UniProtKB/TrEMBL annotation:
Keywords: ATP-binding, Cytoplasm, DNA synthesis, Kinase, Nucleotide-binding, Transferase. Transmembrane segments: none annotated. Belongs to the thymidine kinase family. GO terms for cellular component: cytosol. It is an enzyme of class 2 (transferase). GO terms for molecular function: ATP binding; thymidine kinase activity. Its main location: cytoplasm. This is Thymidine kinase. Homotetramer. It comes from Streptomyces tsukubensis. ATP binds at residues 9-16, 86-89. The gene is tdk. Substrate binds at residues 170-173, 184. It is found in: Cytoplasm.
Length: 216
């Protein structure tokens, strides 16, 4: 029985690393997969992890029919044993339906990886459709942490270290950007609600208002 699996987690929780590991373990046993990605930080047609590993992938551009692509590979004499999709939050809902068809009609396992919610805590359309259709939704074992030490559950977008709540849903970026660039920071829900990033929390702790009063 084949499955559509959605591995979801915050940014920086090891999703791309796991995608690469799943692909590696299968190819080490002679299996062949199709790897899709969309808007990876490393560039078009790349699946990259912060651990430094990167592999070639098919860019799942807007309008690419993922089911038709896999069928075309098989029709051309290629072998497909499984499908991996990274940055799956960026897929259109139709493309997720096409992946479900790959599972049901071609009887292939499809492993998808992505963040569920955007910087405003709203579901990405692709992630919403995955949660609706997936046979299994799996959380990553290596949890990312908020600056306070709690488990990070949400993704904040930052400019100069300050959390912003206006802007386009999709802005490709990373968690370790220079302060003057648009960046991201993972936070627990409490600190996402309070818009308290590590930079603003650090600044507040240094503020004279909250410094302990010393006698004399
Ligand atoms: N220098 C490092 N040493 C060990 N682990 C690292 C290092 N840099 C990044 N990582 C690990 O890589 C994870 C991010 O991996 P990645 O697959 O790129 O995440 P995601 O795809 O979820 O954004 C981090 O959570 C951390 O566990
Ligand atoms: C929260 C949020 C993120 N993004 C972008 C930023 C990155 O390019 C990817 C997530 O990649 P990762 O491998 O999980 O780190 O998504 C975005 O476009 N909009 C957002 O709201």
């Amino acid at each position: 029985m084949s499955d559509l699996v959605f591995f979801s987690g915050t940014m920086d929780s090891g999703k791309s690393t796991l995608a690469l590991q799943i692909g590696h373990n299968r190819s080490a046993r002679g299996l062949q997969g199709v790897i899709f990605t969309r808007d990876d930080r490393a560039g078009e047609g790349k699946l990259s992890s912060r651990l430094g590993l990167v592999t070639e992938a098919v860019e799942a551009k807007e309008g690419l029919d993922l089911y038709a692509y896999v069928v075309a590979v098989i029709t051309a004499g290629g072998r497909v044993d499984y499908v991996i999709v990274d940055e799956a939050q960026f897929l259109a809902p139709d493309q997720v339906d096409q992946l479900a068809r790959v599972v049901d009609d071609l009887e292939l396992d499809v492993y998808t990886f992505g963040i569920t919610t955007d910087f405003r805590t709203r579901l990405f359309p692709g992630s919403q459709r995955l949660m609706e259709l997936a046979d299994r939704v799996e959380s990553l074992q290596v949890e990312a942490l908020c600056w306070c030490g709690a488990r990070a559950t949400h993704n904040a977008r930052t400019v100069n270290g300050v959390m912003v709540v206006e802007g386009a849903q999709v802005v490709v970026g990373d968690v370790d950007r220079a302060v003057d660039e648009i960046g991201y920071e993972v936070l627990c829900r409490r600190h996402h609600r309070k818009r308290a990033t590590s930079a603003t929390a650090h600044a507040a702790s240094l503020s004279p208002d909250v410094l302990p009063v010393t006698p004399g």
